[in-house]
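Field reference: sequence -> structure
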Amino acid sequence: MQRLLYIIQKEFIQIFRNKAMLPMMTVVPIVQLIILSYAASNEVKDVRLAIVNEDHTASARLLIQKIEAADRFILVDFPASVAQGDEMLQTGEVDIVLTIPSQFEEHFYRDKKGNIQLLVNAINGQQASVGAAYLNIIIQSFNQELRSDLKMVSKGGLSPALINTPSSNWYNPDLNFKYFMAPGILGELVTILVMLLTAMNVVREREIGTIEQINVTPIKKWQFILGKLIPFLGIGLVLMTVGLTAAKLLFDIPMQGSLWIIFAYCVVNLSAVLGLGLFISNLSDTQQQALFTTFFFVIIFILMSGLFTPIESMPKWAQYLTIPNPIAHFVSVMRSVLLKGSNFWDVIYHFRVTVVLAVLFNTLAVLSYRKVE
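Structure field:
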């Protein structure tokens, strides 16, 4: 135990001698949290729209007024023909071209149906699908109003039945995107930062030669790895505290669940990540090599964490690959506990998987540490 305490003491002295460490623990995560929470948004705004109006009737004008009133669209122009609308779409001037054909109103009144064409620039699939969905909602609303005004009746003389589907958004009633993103981004930042710091730690000692002095001491392998792990675990918890405080003060993130669950999971998750970082550091000969290897894992972890795209939307093989991904579990626990108020038993699966990962990565770190006893 005495040897372990000496190693921990040495690590803290080395860490606080580094003048860049304190800003990295406080300023960097807050700046990243602010930038990413504002920038990483899937909300689609300002969809550029052109309307080809070949009907020029009261119904067509009413539909255009409804679209103009929506704040999701920027009405760029009214092309005189379908060909001009196609050209605007091809040159990228607009994202969507809506064509109201001639005799639209006449067909609607006479045949009880009217056709409207939507041409969507789908290079940006999300912008296209979400923009078209917004437009379809407006058109369906307009359609219902017309039917109501016309008092269309069924063959039996009764008004056609309308299905009313009121909806309620649970856990994030206002669909505030920052509530959704900030907890996930915070978990991701804490994980990446401590993993990077740890991955370069042992290899740095090897480069400056201090590792040889430690190797001639009677310290055990597991004591060395534990001595390296505990200080960075403390740094990770400080980062989490700073990040949660900033998220509450800046974005008023709801904290429905227990913070004890968050910090308990943070300890388990950081143990796994630190073990992986030490394993990488043991296998690397230079800091540059450790940095590139860490980035290899970090990029995969981020893109497959469910932070930006739902894990359920991934192919089955990709969903299986998210199981050994510590960031995916961290993001899920943060969102579940903070937004939904989940208790320990609700997130027990993530605890179990992460404990297995922690044991595996730290065992590999101990076994890969090159020391002749």
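Note: The chain has a mean pLDDT of 82.
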